[in-house]
Design brief:
By secondary structure, the chain is an alpha/beta fold. It is 31% helix and 20% strand. It has helices spanning 9-13, 33-47, 63-71, 82-90, 105-115, 127-139, 162-172, 196-219, 235-238, 340-346, 372-382, and strands at residues 28-32, 52-53, 77-79, 95-98, 119-124, 144-149, 178-184, 226-229, 246-247, 270-279, 283-286, 301-302, 311-312, 317-320, 332-336, 349-354, 357-363. The strands form two sheets. Strands 1, 10, 11, 12, 13, 14, 15, 16 and 17 form a nine-stranded mixed β-sheet that branches. Strands 2-9-8-7-6-5-4-3 form an eight-stranded parallel β-sheet. α5 (105-115) packs across α6 (127-139). The longest helix has 24 residues, at 196-219. The radius of gyration is 22 Å and the shape is globular. The N and C termini lie close together (8 Å). The structure holds pyridoxal-5'-phosphate.
Length: 389
Amino acid sequence: MTLDTFSTVVDAYRADIGRTRNDLTTPALLLDLPRVRKNIQTMAASLNGAPHLRPHVKSHKCVQIAKMQIEAGAAGVTTATVWEAAMMARAGMDDLLIANEVVGDEKIHCLAETARIARMTVAVDHIGNAETVSAAAQLAKAEIGVLIEVDVGMNRCGVRSAEEARTLAKKLGSLPGLRLRGVMGYEGHCALEVNRDVRAAKAGEAMKKLLAVVEALEADGFEMQVVSAGGTSTYDLTGANRRITEIQAGSYVFMDVTRLPIAPAFEIALTVLCTVVSRTADTVVLDCGKKAIGADFMLPRLKESGLPARACAEEHLLFDVDSNYPLEVGDRVEVVSGYCPITVNIHEVYHVMEDGVVADIWPILTRGPGFGPLRRFIRNQRNGLVTQR
Ligand SMILES: Cc1ncc(COP(=O)(O)O)c(C=O)c1O
């Protein structure tokens, strides 16, 4: 059994290989391969290993792309869920950070099982959760690395002060099966700030908070091997801070309407191919509502003209146009999503485009809540039915 068992769905799309966009059924997710390669190279050249890039794979959920990122020099990958990490480990990736707390028996079991085959690190902000992870690690005879998550301004997960971090670190030190590797603090509250100076100031403040925790923990004798932060909006700002050891950027691979004005070094490499299903004097309607495209933060736009949508409904994407606008019922258009990770999570596969034709079909794994096929895979693995990664 291999990871292919997760993606028999790919077979249903294989007939599209060799077709042009005019022959595809819409909505279809198009991946511009030369641009993905270029974005990966641009990020790798920009960071150049200092700090390391640990790209966030929630943005693509695709083994082929993760491998391209590793080949370009990434230190390992970041995931949002334990299922993404399990999938990446079973595809051969060996240094994985789950940049989230993993809570719940089945998820923690999956984490510990995955730690038997790959170096795993997970975020923690609660001693009770850490104790459960420690127990699972011992049972699996595995070691799990932990980063104390610090809230640096998002008011999401993470300890709220250096004192809380110190208390947690001391307790973590006594838990078998766990190894405290450092801290993480994602400055996501800066991600949508278009003004670069304001963004830089906010991100700088956020990293000050993170580094204050680093100093307090170092003063207590803890070695901070990892100080992890950063996203597509701050990779160059946070990345310029020499105390940060790794950057977790993800969306740069594809980009979207939200990130484009903020990270202009990267190009749009992901679109949804749509068909015009209705055309009146003032409105164009595409077959691409929220079931086919991510419209979080900002509404989608037409790729060619940049025209922003007026509304994104369940099945329909609507554009205000004048009567001369050159789109008719049946025409094909590519649309750029508001937020690429949500778009990816909806679709089953990428149509990988090169020289105007579909060059390949790549599966998008651990979609939705993400655990269905993996649950079967891991259960079989425990029962000794699976022998290879
Ligand atoms: C913890 C964490 N790190 C990194 C990222 C990557 O951000 P981006 O996709 O903007 O690169 C995210 C995105 O939500 C995140 O939640």
